[in-house]
Every structure is written in structure tokens, then in C-alpha cells.
Amino acid sequence: MLLTVRSRVGQHYGELKKVSQDQTLGEEGNCKPMNSKQSKGRLETLAYRSRAVPSFSGSELESLLESARSRNRAAAVTGLLIYDEGRFFQWLEGPNDSLSNIWKVIRDDPRHTDIEVLDHSESGSRLFGQWDMKLATKGTELPIAPNQPVVVSPELLGSLYRSDHPTSSLLSTVRSAVVRPQPEDQLSRRDVLQGMVEQEVIPTLRQRHGAKRPRLPLAHPRAAELAQLLIASDPADAFALIDLLQAEAGSIAVSSATVYEPAARSLGELWASDDCTEVDVTLGLGRLQSGVHLAELGSQVCTRSGAPLRAVLVAPQPGEVHMLGAVLDAEVLWRDGWDTQCEFPTSDEALNGLVAAKWFDAIDLSLSASFRREHWLPRMAQTIAAARRASLNPEIVVVVGGRVFYEQMASAQGVGADRDSTTALQIAQVLKGSLDRPGH
Fold first, then answer.
1. Which residues 6+ apart lie within 8 Å of 156 measured at CB?
2. Mean predicted lDDT score pLDDT of the chain
3. Which domain does 200 fall in, by range?
4. Is residue 104 part of a domain?
5. Are 289 and 320 in a shared domain?
6. 192 and 325 part of one domain
7. For 50-105, what is each residue's pLDDT tens digit?
């Protein structure tokens, strides 16, 4: 089992390495230097309006917002994004050097056009300091001042997109709510993060998920260091650290939850803060998978119990190039005594062919361990529905995983699955619990 998976991962890693080497050197192909400290330049504001090409769907807008929040959070930039009928109005505020870097990314983004800078000036205070990036659409209430929310009305939208002085319209509307801007020296990144967590993240999670999630082990303090080593020009230090941390953990199940999966999420954060490219992330994950298998070669083979083996198909979502979640789950299940088959189908049809040709008790389907991939959820729901129809087992159990489920931004029920698994450490328990229900 281990050798079969390893050979496939190794082949994929070789292809990724070639892609990376073929890229032009510089910003396109290699990681940019890490910023060791937060930007400390003078505070500036920048406002612009533009037109989307084409108009954004709800999932595309959420994906855009997710990337913007991650980048802004890392750069201490805050602001407001208003979207209506294919038109953007955005207000950004933050240190001048950070704002300049973010503006270059926004300006060069091909997803919008007719970009018009409305204001770019120094400022003594922040207007939207409580939000990394707040999305507002028609009818949204902005809780800028206690008990006096600002409503994004049709009149305000009209002034933002048609007026010669839209920023004045926004400022007068907001200030009518008795806004008292917070001085820059009183605003910390911790304040921004705490406000976002308390006002937006926690209520959303409580609403989506009533049940408590199982307590997970803390990430190893060197997991973030491992992520940076994985995208260095020479991965030797990364492989050495993997060997060390694997020996400390004692099992691949524990090291998955404490080292490998946190390192994968750290790779995603490096990309979100523009410290590496998406190809770097994919290459880093490939190196991580190779390092995991090298570290596991000398470990003990699983001990089979006398109980009948359950058959499980482990696979990434078709089209998903980040295979770490599937590889870790497959290793853990195989060592736990499951009849495990790990495949990497390139299409729904290929996945359907697998479950139509052999009886499986369960499917373990995963998305990226680095990126949230919220916009992939509708596609995953279609994949699961098609696999259930094609399966020889009419009551096949489907378990899903990936960062989007780890962070509880999506539920198994939302994609038509039976359960979600937040880490490879839990996958055997989750599958057993689902299969032991009446009817299975």
C-alpha cells in the first residue's frame, strides 16, 4: 500500500518540479522574501471603483473576499468592499508601503476593468478599523457605530458609482452615524483579529454547527518553519526536519494532526500573504508527501485484527492537485487495518468507474489541506451525488475532508456527505462511527 501510493505521489512530484523549474525566475516562479516585521509606514487611505468582467457569482465573490482578508490581515490593512450588479467600490486603509503592494495586486487583477482611483491620501485615523475587509451589498447594515448601523441604500450606491465625489458621499453617510475613528496608535492587529473573530467568525460557526468539534492536538511549534523550508530552493533541511518531527510524534496519525496538516495550512497562508506562488504551494505539498513517505519507510507495518476488513476508497476530489489529505488518510487507515485503496481520479467519470467496479463500504474524499476551496463545494456535491448513483453499494458512506472542513466553513451535509473528518488522526474513528450505524 505504502509503496503504491508513494510511486504515484513521486511521479506527480516530479511533474510539479519540472513545472517550477520551467517558470521564469523571479516573482513568477520563486518565493518572495519573507517580511520579518509588520509594515510601519504612515497611514494612508485609497478608494477606487471598477467594473467586474464578468459579473461575480456568490461563490466567486466569497473566494475573492477570502483572499483579500488574508492578504489585508498580514499587512495590517483594513477596509470596506461594496459590490452591486457587477460594480466594485473599495475603501482601503493601512501603512503606505503595505497599501502600495496590495494596490499593485488589485490594479493588475484581470477580473475587473474601468478602474478609477477616487482618493489616495494620508490619514490620521482609520474609518473601518474593525474589518480586514467587510463585504457589503445592497441592503447590508454596517455596524460601524453602536445601535446606529449604516445601511447600503440604493441612494448610497448611486452616489458611489455615478457621483463625481463618491468618497464624500460615503464619508458623510458614515459620519452621520456618529463615527469616532480610532487613532492608528490605538489599533493593533490583535484588535482587528479579535473583533473579526468575536463579531463575525464565532457567530457564524455557532449558527452553522451546533455540535462541539472534538478536541485536537496543538500544532507543533515548528510546523510553520517546516512550511518555509518546503519552498526553499533546497528541500534537504525540510526532509531532515520531517524525520525529526516524525520520530517525536511516534505515529503518522499524530504527526498528521500536529505537523503535516498545520504545515500545509501554513503554506496556504504564505500564498495568501503573497510570500509565494500557487505553484510553490503545490510543489511544497509534493515535497511534504515525499518526506512523509521516506520517514514512514522504516516504521512498523500495521497489525491486522481478526475482524472483517472494511473496504474504503480514498481519493482527492477529482481535479484537486493537492493530494496530501488523501495520502495521509490512506496511510493512517492502512496501518489501522482497513482494506484501503488510494486513487487519484482526474474526473467524476473516473471516480464513478472505481465505485461501479468494486464494492466499497466508504469513500473518503478530500479537498486541499492548504486552500479553503469554498468555491469547489458545489462541484464536490455533484461528485458525491454521482458517485452514490454509480456505486455497487447503495448505502455507501461518504466522508469528506480538507481545510474548508477543518475550519468549519462548510459541513458534510452541505455537500451531501455523511460526515466530515478534520484531520487524518480522526479518519478511522469517523469512518467506524458512520459504518457502525444501523443499516451499515
1. 169, 170, 173
2. 75
3. 43-208
4. yes
5. no
6. no
7. 888 877 777 777 788 888 887 887 788 888 888 877 888 888 888 888 888 889 88
